[in-house]
Write a structure and sequence with these properties.
2 copies of one chain form a homodimer. Chain A is of the alpha/beta class. Chain A is built from 20 helices and 10 strands. Chains A and B meet through α1, α2, β2, α11 and α12 of A and α1, α2, β2, α11 and α12 of B.
Amino acid sequence: MFRTAELGQKLSKEEYKRIEPDLRFELHELQRKTRSLGKYPVIIVLAGVDGGGKGDTVKILNEWMDARWVINRAYRPASDEEKERPRFWRYWRDLPPRGQIGLFMSAWYSSPVVDYAHRKISRDELDRHLEQIENFENALADDGALILKFWMHLSRDAQKKRFKSLEKDPDRKWEVNKRDWDNWKRYDQFIEAAERTIMRTNTGKAAWNIIEGSDNRYRRITIGTILRDAMQKKLNAMKNQSAPTLTAGSDISGEQGGEAASLTVFSGLDMAKGLDRNMYKSELRKFQAKMNHLTRKGLKQEMSTIVVFEGPDAAGKGGAIRRVISALDPHHYQILPFAAPTEEERAQHYLWRFWRHLSRAGDVTIFDRSWYGRVLVERVEGFATNAEWQRAYAEINDFEQQLVEHNIVLIKFWVHITKEEQLRRFQEREKTPHKSWKLTDEDWRNREKWDLYSAAAHDMIQYTSTQSAPWVIVEGNDKYYARVKTIRTVCDYLTQALDR
Amino acid sequence: MFRTAELGQKLSKEEYKRIEPDLRFELHELQRKTRSLGKYPVIIVLAGVDGGGKGDTVKILNEWMDARWVINRAYRPASDEEKERPRFWRYWRDLPPRGQIGLFMSAWYSSPVVDYAHRKISRDELDRHLEQIENFENALADDGALILKFWMHLSRDAQKKRFKSLEKDPDRKWEVNKRDWDNWKRYDQFIEAAERTIMRTNTGKAAWNIIEGSDNRYRRITIGTILRDAMQKKLNAMKNQSAPTLTAGSDISGEQGGEAASLTVFSGLDMAKGLDRNMYKSELRKFQAKMNHLTRKGLKQEMSTIVVFEGPDAAGKGGAIRRVISALDPHHYQILPFAAPTEEERAQHYLWRFWRHLSRAGDVTIFDRSWYGRVLVERVEGFATNAEWQRAYAEINDFEQQLVEHNIVLIKFWVHITKEEQLRRFQEREKTPHKSWKLTDEDWRNREKWDLYSAAAHDMIQYTSTQSAPWVIVEGNDKYYARVKTIRTVCDYLTQALDR
């Protein structure tokens, strides 16, 4: 794989001087245009063998472009706050907003390659890791990001020569340390790991460029040229692209046509389920005590819990949440209500705002509405294109998979009510003075789209009820029953997780 | 001080049942109105002796109000990311945005009281710490925040009784641990520390309420009532308050009247200072090598550096920044350009967006424009009221003091050019095709206000050039001279800091 990067490619000083000024000017202009368009981020990954010129590349790109709008990201060992979240959290939080350029040094490629070269992880673990990388990059690319990956290569001999020459330079000998030489001794394993990594993550959406690293001038001009062409191509593509047609609620009934919408996963529910007040009170007390006990135990084990609440307006999500939290230590829970994203959130992939809110180890986080907005309200109201909400199922499954693999207890509730019960509750809210503020025109408008929302919820449950993160549907017509089922389910999940 | 909180105040079950429903309803309504107004945050601090009911208070307030819009903040020992920033960083990042309510458990009061009770800090250190708290709370209150502080008190005997009774309850005995009993043995020292703390931080803008903690019902109703009244009063005050008169550039010439504006700190500068090209090249090379060396040493010692650049348009800030960074390891610097704040930033105190960007230990952060916008552009353009920008000097001095005390090397550059030189550069930009985008209508508009900006810069330098964070004025008419002076100054600061 690296043969073509061991040819000894060079560029003369004269050639460099001839090419560099224009290239620099063009890159600067392209950066400015990308920024003023503000539609997508540019993500540049610089990886490869030590001494291959990663550092020099970051430096020259910062010189050629306006460094104020370039975000440089290099990674030290994970901080404790980073260790308490899934592996990709640190990369998500570092992503450049639309219009800006992020330079990532090794970043998500560092640990798979190094760990596999040192045989700290198995081949299967490597592959699993690379699959996550692919999903991560795909999600960003699908959202519009321009992703460019450069692998700087040096042959074993060239690397040795490079280290030796650095060591001779009194100003730069600090750049080579014992770890570099140790790695050099494992050159072959390192290259093997790199090959597999590049092979598996070389996708159409985020392709690798293998660059011969030994000659500074050649490397700089080659990378600069590839970057220039890609940025130009992307800008052209954006110009020629007509705005995506957002047809609210289109395709909603899927393959099966209009008929299917009426028969959903909710059709089979026994919505008559109920609980009398005395039973409710005693059950609630029982499970709240149990949950208090379980969450304290969970905290000691640094076990994090995420509880997601979705459901129609007036389904009783708020009431259920109140019963759950009243059993919890207020030091260690957080409720996160989600409505429209903020300006900073809109400048990122839609999952970014959920990643940013993942809490520290041991805490219970309650999401009052969540990332599922993408396939519910954004689908039905046409805020997301068909392509966007359709690929969101896989993106969400992958996101949740990462939570579960990080040993976070993930519980997803769909609190369901019938259309008739919703009407009854709306009317009650209208009549009760201190509740009337709860009811808005939007609620009535959403109600008109009941069938569209039902179909969207049906698809959501179908596509995102996975083995590791199944949906729990709560029959919500009777509030007592719903609240007890919710809290009992949380207890069940916690018990199971603590027994693991 | 705590006599009145040892009276054995109680509330009967009947009284509680009579008062609670209305209080709860009112609090809920007030929360809703505060949120829909969205003009100021409510910051509630709950502190006091263990067993005094801090936890119960958080719980009941979350029950009474809409818990989704209450932010609960409790603090564990600082994470490594928190330790790498000044002490108040963790509190700044947790502040509720305007319209929301934050419940802070002990928070910034925990370490001064506990550390002084255990004599880990001296009385002087305690006082210094309390002064910082006062500045912090004043800054928030001046920005509109409603701050309520509750100190839950128990007498020595009442605390012992409380612990004993908790230990007897199998469901709650975990709430008492060895540390609690150890603290109880130091009750008198603890109370002494608390008294001094309350005394010194009991300000008109953020007053303490001392609450007798032994009876749950009494405590809840007392706190709820105080909170209700304060929230109501604040809402009324906001309603009656007419919009502040924003008069652009008013008061600009200060006490001295119009004449004074022409004689500024810039009048005495020798703007003819220059450097020839050869000298420039050799000096630049020399200092860049030196800086590279110094920053590597700084990184090893986890020394952080913040470099602030301010100055008129076209003064050459960008060029100076480029020369500084080209000497740095791209792994460890970040340039932060500041223009208009984002939506999330506008919902917070103006310093919040600078606090949030303080980087991890060892890094160099370059602020291309900064918190000084408050007393420059915001003052001149009338984006801040007179009261706002006038109090900003002290707020900024306090902020920088915290940076310096955290051993961050802080360097502030005012890159100055004359009005004639600015015109020359504007005209040159106009004529040069690849530079013309740099020049906007706004630049011309700002230029018309040259004298107002000069006067604002003069005041800024006067009021914020402190012993620990002086301004460095760079004569910028000659770019070569300015760049070398900048980088030489950075070297001087780093050398001095490393010798400490």
